[in-house]
Amino acid sequence: MTKQLILFRHGKSSWDASHGRDRDRPVAERGIAAAKTMGKLLSKAGRVPDLAITSSAVRARTTLELAHAAGDWACPTAVTDDLYEASIDQVLEVIHQVAHHHSSLMLVGHEPTWSDAVSYFMGGGAVAMPTAAMVCLEFEAVTWPQVEYGRGTLLWLLPPRLFA
C-alpha cells in the first residue's frame, strides 16, 4: 500500500505593511488566480486528496479555500497552527496524526519549510517551490506514522505558471 502526500505552497501574497502581522498577509491577485488554476488542475487530473490541512496563516487558508472551490473538491479540510512557521519535524508530526483510512493528504504551507520537507522526504536533492506550486510524494506505507524521511518518491512537481 502507498500513501501520497501533496505539499501545496500558498499563493503569492501581499507584502503591504498595512496587514500587520505576517500571518495576516492576504493572497495577492496573482496568487488568487494561481490557486484557482491549481484547484481545477487537480480535479481534472483526478488527484484531489482525501484530506487537506492548511496552515492557519491567512494566505495559506485562502489558497486552500480558493483551490477547493475552483476544483469543486469534496475532501474535508482542517486548519492548524502547527504548519505556520513549522520545522520539518513539526510537519512530520502533523502527517503522523492523520487517520490511516486517508490514502492521500494535502498540506498547505510555506517556504522554506516545503522545499526542505521535499528534500528530507526524498533523502536528498533540492527542489524549488514557487508560490502556488504543488509537489506529490509517494510512500510505501499502510499508515501515516510509517511515513519517514528518506522514504518518499517524487511523483510530480507542478508550478502554476505551466498552466496559466
From TrEMBL:
**InterPro entries from the xrefs?**
His_Pase_superF_clade-1, His_PPase_superfam
- Signal peptide start-end: none
The record lists the membrane-crossing segments as none
Q: Which SUPFAM superfamilies match?
A: Phosphoglycerate mutase-like
Coiled-coil regions, chain positions: none
* Pfam families named in the record: His_Phos_1
**What name does this protein carry?**
Histidine phosphatase family protein
Specify the species. Answer: Shackletoniella antarctica
